[in-house]
Amino acid sequence: MEKLPKIGLPIIIAVIILVVVLAKSAVTIGSGEAGVLFKTFGEGVVTDEPPMAEGFHIVAPWNKVYIYEVRQQELFEKMKVLSSNGLEIQIDASAWYEPVYDDLGNLHQSLGQNYLQRVIMPSIRSAARSVVGRYTPEQLYSSKRDAIQDEIFEETKKILEKQYVQLNEVLVRDVTLPNTIKEAIERKLRQEQESLEYEFRLVTAAKEAEKQRIEAQGKADANKILSASLTDKILQDKGIEATMKLSESPNSKVIVIGSGDSGLPIILGNQ
Question: I need a surface site. Which of 65, 68, 159, 169 has the fewest CB within 10 A?
């Protein structure tokens, strides 16, 4: 019985050491994350193997694992940039990005875990300054927001092409101009709209006048043709035809044959 404690003590110590080693060696990588292994007594950052996937891992206690989020992330940026004529414009934008999964080791080795501050933010700011500098405030305020959004995305993507980062989208949420410039642009847009409305009314009035002229000319031509085609004989036939129809009416009347102009009958009614 006295020997049991002497035998059990080393076992207990070994178990404690094992637990400590396992605790230092165990790594749990969460959902949407991946790990980069650093071998202290090896080649350092492992770049020739895929990153450590989600789940539980055992690594040597002298090695380290750096965990990265590999899901799409969003960056919000407020940037003050200059337009083509030197006016200060504020751009509110956001970028969707994620690290390139298979190059996570290279990303860690070249940029580290603060790659957002090192490359993504400077790249977006540089692209925004370059793109906005091509446009006037009027263009930025009215018709060119989609264009600058696409151009900022393309230029930022080009800068990040070899930085082991994938840029998915850039969204320009707002373009803020100085109040005096904004008011001047709005006045100009209102004046242009009023001018367009006035021109439209003039064009409409001119078309209506032309339509009436054509209709009047058509009526005049029709009357001219009709007048030229009406002879005395035709008029007499028409008068006789009308007289025959009136004679069939139940109303009382007196018809004097051959007493009218050109020999047409005269109809004398009771009214």
Answer: 169
> Is the same domain home to 165 and 106?
yes
Verify that 77 and 173 share a domain, yes or no.
Answer: yes
Lowest mean pLDDT among 48-57, 115-124, 157-166, 184-193: 184-193
Q: DSSP 3-state assignment of 171?
A: strand
Per the listing, tokens 């940037």 go with 79
Res 19: pLDDT: 55
CATH no. for residue 78? 3.30.479.30
Host domain of residue 195 = 185-229
Long-range contacts of 19-23 (CB under 8 A, 24+ apart): 21/61, 22/58
- Residue 42: its pLDDT value, please? 84
The pLDDT value recorded for residue 110 is 94
- Measured torsion, CA atoms of residues 247, 248, 253, 258, in degrees rounded to the nearest 10: 10
Q: Which of 53, 69, 85 is the last residue of a domain?
A: 69
Please, is 48 exposed, middle or buried when counting C-beta atoms within 10 Å of its C-beta (0-12, 13-18, 19+)?
exposed
Query: What's the structural domain count of the chain?
Result: 4
CA 75 from centroid of its chain's CA atoms: 20
Q: How far is CA 48 from CA 4, 17, 55, 65, 164, in A?
A: 51, 33, 21, 15, 14
Q: Which of the listed residues 47, 69, 91 is the one where a domain comes to its end?
A: 69
User: Which bin fits 164, alpha (ψ -120 to 50), beta or left (φ > 0)?
Assistant: left
Q: Angle CA(145)–CA(146)–CA(152) in degrees, nearest 5?
A: 90
